[in-house]
């Protein structure tokens, strides 16, 4: 069995059930991806940014054993979903290879470092912020319309599966980026979460306006347990309490706005995935998972982040897709 990235492995089981509902394998569908480094398939390789995954050890378990721009040692979440759909992986939208019939498979617009808010990830300089990702989605539809016509393009988009993953960077690379950050001086944590959620609702509503009808929305994982955060903020190797609190505030409110949107639309177009609980299952009981995966997770994490001696091995987890904020 291939050693999947820990983040991917912990999500796939939970997402598989959703996929059976959203994208039956008997019917080919396009697949569109929006979000951050958890789902970026290589767009940042084409940008002048420090948020990159184009060097060792990224890609060591990918079929080519080379870095691809994925923030993973191998496949990432969109790759696994594409496999479940019986389709080839979607290409990064900025890839020159994305042309002709390959456009009909879909596209990946995600960019490492972005958040819901435009001021998230400013230290990474050139990244594709979520509003720009949505503009690229419009551009994509114009390109495809020239190939198959507007009506067929609308049908392709309406029937496609859409994955969007945002939110984590708005905390680790914005609110908690530095002590007394601008956003932390402006908002208390509960108020900041409400602000981010209100902006996220606008993003999802815009996605619907652009034709998305089958949208899988993932919440944030256990941000306080990410190796980079453990190394920078944890004193005794335990998950960082404030970041865990942020996730606990964010995820239920995200689920609530998804319910609101579906009610306003009159149809269950958006589905929430509880990625935080999936991650915590692994963190609290890693022995229940494949031993090879666990061994590789520790090996990968030591290589990528160089876990501090103060961080116990059972906390030194390979939660990929995260990028150090400094």
Outline type: globular
Question: Cα-atom Rg, whole angstroms?
Answer: 19 Å
Give the helix tally: 11
DSSP, total strands: 5
Largest sheet: 5 strands, parallel
Q: Considering DSSP H and I runs of 4 or more, what fraction of the residues is helical?
A: 40-55%
- By CATH, the architecture is named 3-Layer(aba) Sandwich
Q: What is the CATH topology assignment?
A: Rossmann fold
First-to-last CA distance:
35 Å
Mind telling me the CATH class?
Alpha Beta
Helices and strands, in order, run as: HEHEHHEHHHEHHEHH
List the SSEs and their pairings:
Layout: H1 6-22, E1 31-35, H2 77-85, E2 106-108, H3 130-148, H4 150-159, E3 161-165, H5 169-175, H6 182-186, H7 189-209, E4 215-218, H8 227-233, H9 241-265, E5 270-273, H10 275-284, H11 291-305
Helix pairs in contact: 1-2, 1-10, 3-4, 7-9
Q: What structural keywords apply?
A:
326 residues, Rossmann fold, 5-stranded parallel β-sheet, 44% helix, disordered N terminus, SGNH_plant_lipase-like, signal
Can you describe this structure?
Helices cover 44% and strands 6% of the residues. It has 326 residues and is α/β, with parallel strands linked by helices. The chain has a single domain, classed as Rossmann fold (3-Layer(aba) Sandwich), CATH 3.40.50. It has a 5-stranded parallel sheet, with helices on both faces. α1 packs parallel to α2 and α3 crosses α4. It is globular. 47% of the residues are buried. InterPro entries: GDSL, GDSL_Est/Lipase, SGNH_hydro_sf, SGNH_plant_lipase-like.
């Amino acid at each position: 069995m291939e050693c999947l990235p820990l983040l991917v492995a912990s999500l796939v089981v939970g997402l598989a059930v959703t996929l059976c509902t959203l994208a039956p394998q008997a019917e080919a569908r396009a697949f569109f991806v929006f979000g951050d480094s958890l789902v970026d398939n290589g767009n940042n390789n084409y940008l002048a940014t420090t948020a990159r995954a184009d060097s060792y050890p990224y890609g060591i378990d990918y079929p080519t054993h080379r870095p691809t721009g994925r923030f993973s040692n191998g496949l990432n979440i969109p790759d696994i979903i594409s496999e479940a759909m019986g389709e080839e992986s979607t290409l990064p939208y900025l890839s020159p290879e994305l042309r002709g019939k390959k456009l009909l498979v879909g596209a990946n617009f995600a960019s490492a470092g972005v958040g819901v808010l435009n001021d998230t990830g400013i230290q990474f300089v050139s990244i594709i912020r979520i509003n720009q990702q949505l503009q690229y989605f419009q551009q994509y539809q114009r390109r495809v319309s020239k190939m198959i016509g507007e009506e067929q393009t609308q049908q392709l988009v309406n029937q496609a599966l859409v994955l969007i993953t945002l939110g984590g960077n708005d905390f680790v690379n914005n609110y908690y980026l530095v002590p007394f950050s601008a956003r932390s001086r402006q908002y208390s944590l509960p108020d900041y979460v409400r602000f981010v959620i209100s902006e996220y609702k606008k993003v999802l509503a815009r996605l619907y306006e652009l034709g998305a009808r089958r949208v899988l929305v993932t919440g944030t994982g256990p941000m306080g347990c990410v190796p980079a955060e453990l190394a920078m903020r944890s004193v005794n190797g335990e998950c960082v309490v404030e970041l865990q609190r942020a996730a606990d505030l964010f995820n239920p409110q995200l689920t609530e706005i998804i319910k609101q949107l579906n009610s306003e639309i009159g149809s269950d177009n958006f589905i929430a995935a509880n990625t935080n609980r999936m991650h915590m299952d692994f963190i609290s009981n890693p022995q229940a998972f494949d031993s090879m995966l666990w061994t590789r997770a520790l090996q990968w994490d030591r290589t990528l982040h160089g876990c501090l001696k103060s961080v116990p091995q059972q906390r030194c987890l390979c939660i990929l897709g995260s990028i150090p904020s400094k």
